[in-house]
Amino acid sequence: MVTSPRLYVYTMGQDDPKKCSANRLIRFGLAIPIDRRNRIPREALILDPYADSMLTPRDREQAERAGMAVIDCSWKNAETVFSSASSRGNSRRLPVLLAANAVNYARRSMLSSLEALAAALFILGHEQEAEVILRIFKWAPHFLVLNKEPLISYSQANDETDMAARIREFFP
Fold first, then answer.
1. For the whole model, what pTM was predicted?
2. Most buried pick, 5, 29, 39, 110, via CB within 10 A?
3. Phi, psi (5° rounding) for residue 169?
4. DSSP alpha helices (H): ranges in 91-155?
5. How many CB atoms lie within 10 A of CB 32?
6. DSSP character for 80?
7. Dihedral of CA 149/152/156/161: which sign?
């Protein structure tokens, strides 16, 4: 039986609340709010743009069992926030993708929390779930259009070495 990963969001309140994709995920019941970083489930995969390990399809079972979490903060503070991140969970960075959000449109790896979770879902074989969560903003489904070929390729990677080679194909 295929189980969709539970999605967790720890929001730091650093973004415009009207534009915050993490808040909207919570409001629509698509993610579980976390009020403190240390409440992220211990085994959950934490999407961290500065993590040493990259998310690959091999992480699917763990995500389905323990869930995935994002720490929603401003990109201006991201390096500081993630450098002080708790060791709870298992941090993974996403492969290179282009943002579709208005603030960072077409910039490499400057994804919103929504885009990061959708990318992770897609890479882990949960394409339909990725499409569902992206429907909460008019601009968001374009994320899959903008990144279609890389996402399909990334979802077929065998390991981090293979993923790195696939990234170089699209983003030399």
1. 0.91
2. 5
3. -65, -40
4. 113-123, 127-134, 142-146, 148-154
5. 16
6. H
7. positive
Q: Is 75 left (phi over 0), alpha (psi -120 to 50) or beta?
A: alpha
User: Are 116 and 70 in contact, with CB atoms under 8 Å apart?
Assistant: yes
Residues 6 or more apart whose Cβ sits within 8 Å of residue 61: none
Q: What's the average pLDDT block by block, 10 residues per block, for the chain (172 residues)? A: 86 70 93 90 92 95 96 70 61 96 92 96 97 93 96 98 98 94
Helix axes 113-123, 127-134, angle to 10 degrees: 160
Q: Are strands 7-11 and 32-34 parallel, antiparallel or unpaired?
A: parallel
> Using CA atoms, how far apart are residues 138 and 101, in angstroms rounded to an integer?
10
In the structure encoding, which two tokens stand for residue 97, read together?
A: 């993708």
Rounded to whole angstroms, what are the CA distances from 158 to 70, 144, 166? Answer: 24, 21, 10
The SS3 of residue 93 is strand
Residue identified by tokens 């993610």 is 31
